[in-house]
Amino acid sequence: MPDNRLGRVTLQVIAAFMALTLLVAGPVYAQTPSGSNPTAQAVNEQQLLDELQKIEGRVTLPNTAAGLLEQPQGRDYRSFHEGWLPWIGGIAITGILLLLALFYLYRGRIRTLAPESSVKILRFGALERLTHWMTATAFIILAITGLNFIFGKRLLMPLIGADAFSTWSIWAKYAHDFVSWAFMLGILVMLVTWAWDNLPDRHDAHWLRVGGGFFDKTNRTHPPAGRFNTGQKLIFWAVVLGGIALSVSGIFMLFPFAFTDINGMQTAQYVHATVGIILIAVIIAHIYIGTLGMEGAYEAMGSGTVDINWAKEHHSAWVERQQAKGAIPPRSAAEPAE
Amino acid sequence: MARMKFLCDADRCIECNACVTACKNEHDVPWGINRRRVVTINDGKPGERSVSMACMHCTDAPCAAVCPVDCFYTTADAVVLHSKDLCIGCGYCFYACPFGAPQYPRVGNFGSRGKMDKCTFCAAGPEGDSTEVEYAKYGANRLAEGKLPLCAEMCSTKSLLAGDGEIIAAIYKERVTQRGYGSGAWGWQTAYRETIDV
Fold first, then answer.
1. Which of A202, A220, A221, B23 is the most buried (most CB within 10 A)?
2. In this structure, is residue A30 part of a structural domain?
3. What is the pLDDT of residues B10-57, one digit of tens each?
4. Nearest CB to B68: which of A66, A169, A177?
5. pTM summary value
6. ipTM score of the complex?
């Protein structure tokens, strides 16, 4: 029946038209409370931040890391960098200086009891001294240029002006980046050469119990010690472990984003700055006791040799062992000429 | 003075990247540096949204706070700018920026990044307005010419809005009321510690 067929087609056209109208008018329903909401499935900023702590997506740039849309952790980084860090640094460094000043007032310079003998014994060989001074020089440069990142704008910039301070800071940054390699090498060589002598031994417990004799004003307390006493061992392990932490976190920063993402970079800075500050405080104490704080201590690392009477007082077990090995003159020969 | 802000209406962004291209062209931005980028979240899934992001010119900007040489400054229009003469390229601002805005030319050894570059809200830098030296370092200074940022000006869907915070918030608010939905002003809570109530 042609009539019927025509009627059916007409109906289909009308139905299709109505469906199309509905489709086009769809979004209008969004305005009504009962209608569909085109944003019902849409991503929500706050929800993403609550669930994932940061918002990431896709970018069409070659730098895929740019897909990180928001990282509110930058705020934590800022509060550490500008809130905690200057305080940690300020307290640690002025604190150690104050403690050392108090100690100096209390104890004065630690003198060697026995008179100087004519016998000098080798304490640190050429390689050991070279390593020490290379690492020490590098560390001082790194410490000054590193502290510049925290305190420079607070202390130095008001004095020399923004332009001069920027120029200095650029060179300080280059120095920090390049000198770091000498420091890292030094730490590795130190670990290899001195780790064995810095393992705990039977003298440590007693040394710690008497506080290394540091607080005996009569200067009569000289606990026996091997090549390194417990205090030196603590310095050594602080330098080596702290140095490794600084090296690893530093390499992360020397090659930004090569090994980690933004939060990893922030953590690297937290570690680097905190360990750096603590190590600077430790090294200030080390410099004090190695120079001003104790008579005869500087010679060990300066010329490499020490007076045998000094060695007997401070490293009795080491002297005995060296004498037994025949590495230094035996007891009788080492007695000072009366 | 106005308090300049960006607002990306994610329900309108079609990820055409015209804002990115406009920015690069207007300021002659070198290769590898993107002052503005479009990030697509949940790409290809239902509810996908694209957000055009650049420096948001934060209130109490974290980049300025962590800068070790204090090279940042905020203009009377609350635009966060910096001096490339003072910048040492340390990268701290990138770690502090919640939006990944700071960019670096990446030259040199051991993390030497060169002078930082970022969106200037088309307000360039500390050099004299619309000078050649200013253009070479920071790009065009449209604000000095009484114009708004080009990225937003030429956004085809008017998804990206730039201008006085109160005005663009009112525009967005009106839109949301009229069409009945809106996924909010992306980044505002983080950047300005306030959002638009609709």
1. B23
2. no
3. 999 999 999 999 999 999 999 889 999 999 999 988 889 999 999 999
4. A169
5. 0.86
6. 0.90
Asked if B17 lies within 8 A of A60 by C-beta distance, the reply is yes
Domain B4-192 fold: Alpha-Beta Plaits (3.30.70)
Per-residue pLDDT, B47:
85
Asked if residue A304 belongs to a domain, the reply is yes
Residues of A (53-82) whose Cβ lies below 8 Å from B: 55-61, 63, 65-75, 77-78, 81-82
CATH number for A208: 1.20.950.20
Are B95 and A63 a contacting pair at CB < 8 A? no
Domains: count for chain A: 1
Please, is B121 exposed, middle or buried when counting C-beta atoms within 10 Å of its C-beta (0-12, 13-18, 19+)? buried
Which residue of A36, A47, A70, A156 to mutate against B (max B Cβ within 10 Å)?
A70
- Residue A36 covered by a domain: no
